[in-house]
Amino acid sequence: MAPVTPFQLALSKGRDRYNTRFALARYRSRDLSAADFLAHLRDRVGPVVDAAGVDADPVPLTDALVELSLRLAERGWLAEGTPTALAFAALPSVARAAGAAPDRVPAALLTAARHVAAAPVGDVAGWLAAVAEVAAVVPPAEVDLLLGAAAVAAWRHGVALLRRSAVDTMRALPTEVLVRALGSPVSADGVDRMAADPWAAPVGGEPGLLLRGRVGAFTGFGGQFPRPPVVRAVGGRWYAESAGAAWEVAADRYGWDLRQVAAVPEPDGTAVPPVSPVRLGAAGEVTDGRGGVLRLPELADATSVAGVGDTLAITTRYSHRIVFVGRSS
Asked: Across-strand partners of 280?
């Protein structure tokens, strides 16, 4: 007879509780399939519990994963190919940490997977691979270290709005962990350069004045802006407005992101806004004050220009995209 696995043992101990909880979930969501949920338990939950290690009590981890699974299933978020399904399949790589903090690690990573997937250029598969790399060198009990590195990896894989917090977190990460989170070696001054320059790479980069990217799109093509947007810079952040709606805008070497906000915040009346050394001329000629010149006729007669540091965000009446032009040293 095959030996009983830790997951099977936990299921047998909690069978009545799990059945009751499934019945409640089924009452809330009539489309919830018992066969599909059992397959999920077998194929996705069981491997996590069994990989957690002999030192982990399988019951708390199973309890947490079953409860989490039911909440996700009620919302239809466990279907094949969804971000949470992909993240569940990757949880065995962090099973020991999940066993050490069952009420924290799985929920945090599954939630993060949805945020990465929601970013316009988010790469869930790449992020999950980076988290697995990090977990291989982080002791299971150091949950804060694992989740901090996972947040840095999420920024690296497209969640540009995490940039500020990710840079702060990078300063506290051991070098081996940071390298795995970024997927790249990091030079001695790499973190400082990345903090000061959104276009800087961990090592090297593309110096000079360059067209850095185009952000957003027309709603009719699946984008965010119903009308060509205008941009503003407030407090060192970019904001966009279109048809009465507002977004915070983030862009850097790893991607771009938009977060809808109630309104563009009012600037601090006591603060003197910094003047960007990068300037846009009427004919679409961008200069950086250091001899760098970039000619972009598409930016002639711009409708708005907002500078933060050595980067300009620019809009025109003919496009639903925000153009970013920046200098990197």
From this structure: 286
What is the CB neighbour count within 10 angstroms for residue 156? 22
CA distances from 261 to 11, 74, 215, 238, 247 (A): 44, 28, 17, 12, 5
Residue 238 CA, chain-centre distance (Å), reads 18
Rounded-to-integer distance, Cα 8 and Cα 13, Å? 9
Digit-coded pLDDT (tens) for 9-43: 999 999 999 999 999 988 888 888 999 999 999 99
Cβ count near 8 (within 10 Å):
16
Mean pLDDT over all residues of the chain? 92
Rounded-to-integer distance, Cα 103 and Cα 98, Å: 8
Query: Using CA atoms, how far apart are residues 313 and 198, in angstroms rounded to an integer?
Result: 13
- Boundaries of every domain in the chain: 6-183, 208-265+274-328
Residue 250 has pLDDT above 50, yes or no: yes
Question: What pTM, to 2 d.p., does this model score?
Answer: 0.91
